[in-house]
Specification:
alpha/beta; four-stranded antiparallel β-sheet; 280 residues; single chain; six-stranded mixed β-sheet; 21% strand; 11 helices; 40% helix
Length: 280
């Protein structure tokens, strides 16, 4: 379990805090989504858990970051790496090998894992991400989405208890993003704790166990997707853009029909609700 208690962070040279008084809990074996408008602090919160701030990006921090009850706030990234896997938004800067299969083997080999297990785990990771056919390809020949899948496969081959992903579907089309979130949900259901920063709610809403909505570095709402979206819709304003179209549609249909507000997190649920309204 990961928790942050009264955590704040300010980058060197900045007057305002990137994160302010963050309190959250990420349960084991769950898919936790950090969302918010651009500049709200989504990336920084993952970097804080991974130890990238303040150790690689200097700044001032206060409060606690706990992992399974242990305070890791002052642990450098190398000491967290065995327990926390991190994939940043700039995928190419994190690639170290020329070929896909070598990239996925690299981390395993550096941990001194025997050759037989390296092959077994690399193969399983590629199958999970659907990139087996890319094994012999060069990284430079891949599309953005294929590189994203390769990076995730290389990380899950290491089997970290915690996986952090910054904008994991950024280079994927809607179909590819849906497949990716299905994979992440499967990994969470099988014991991995996953936190991802993502702005496009349509992608993660059907799969997230809990979401955190950041606004100007502060935790505005945290909870199940439907409850957070209901708060945003009631509030109005720019935050409505973070609510999936399906949820906006069913909320509006509920309003004009004078029914109790229904928040549908998927297009399928919205269609089913609309059909039910027609039959009534």
């Amino acid at each position: 379990m990961i928790s942050m208690k009264d955590y704040s962070f300010k980058y060197d040279g900045c007057e305002s805090y990137a994160l302010s008084d963050i309190n959250l809990t990420i349960e084991d074996s769950s898919l936790f989504i950090v969302t918010g408008l651009s500049g709200s602090g989504k990336s920084t919160i993952l970097e804080a858990i991974a130890g990238i701030v303040p150790y690689c990006a200097a700044g001032e921090q206060s409060g606690l970051i706990m992992l399974d009850g242990e305070d890791i706030s002052d642990c450098e990234p190398v000491r967290r790496a065995a327990r926390i896997g991190y994939i940043g938004e700039d995928i190419m800067s994190q690639m170290v090998c020329a070929k896909v299969e070598d990239e996925i083997r690299f981390g395993l080999e550096n941990l001194g894992i025997c050759a037989k297990d390296v092959e077994k785990r690399a193969k399983a990771a590629m199958e999970t991400l659907g990139i087996t056919s890319l094994a012999k390809r060069t990284i430079s020949s891949l599309s953005g989405g294929q590189r994203q899948r390769t990076a995730i496969a290389a990380m899950i081959a290491l089997m970290p208890p915690v996986l952090l992903l910054d904008n994991p579907a950024g280079a994927l089309d809607p179909s590819g993003a849906e497949e990716l979130y299905k994979v992440l949900k499967h990994l969470a259901e099988n014991g991995m704790t996953i936190a991802a920063a993502e702005e496009r709610s349509e992608l993660f809403a059907p799969y997230a166990d809990k979401i955190l909505l950041l606004e100007n570095g502060r935790a505005k709402y945290i909870g199940r997707a439907e409850s957070v979206y209901q708060e945003l819709l009631a509030e109005g304003g720019a935050g409505r853009e973070l609510v999936p179209k399906s949820a906006r549609f069913t909320a509006e249909l509920s309003r004009i029909s004078h029914k109790e507000c229904v928040i549908a997190s998927t297009a399928e649920k919205a269609a089913s609700f609309a059909l039910g309204m027609q039959l009534c």
